[in-house]
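--- STAGE predict ---
source: upstream dedup step, 1 unique chain passed
mode: sequence only
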Amino acid sequence: MADERSYPKGHPDRNETMVKEALGTGILKLSEFHSFSSDNPEDMVKEYEVKLIGVSMFQLAILGIGEDGHTASLFPGNELGLSPEAPDLLAVYNSPKPPSERVSLSIKKINLSNHILFLVSGKSKQEIVDRVLKGEDLPATKVKGIKTTEMFFLTENQ
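--- STAGE serialize ---
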């Protein structure tokens, strides 16, 4: 997980819950799925740091893009996690999108992925996808996979 929202385990808005529902246990190897036992950002960071010991890179990162151009819990107008000096893991306490408390990988750590795939859906995200593709200064434009960075954008028929 590139980020997680500070909700109790099993909460419908927790990323872990949504991923498990979308992929199911047939695809998802639960032994390789790193979830958090806590919903406290500092505890989540400590827990994830232990899980990431010895992990120098990822094979694949699947990310979304918010309507404001954020990805993971890296938001426009907030340099937290975007500088090269940022720690690999961040406790976020001031997210502009609820909930305000989260945990996130830094852009530096995300970019240690061989392949990065953005999955974006909904007509409401057309404008931000255009801005990202034009290279506007947004967190999502700073994401660069070692080998590939791809985006799949799906609009809904409405």
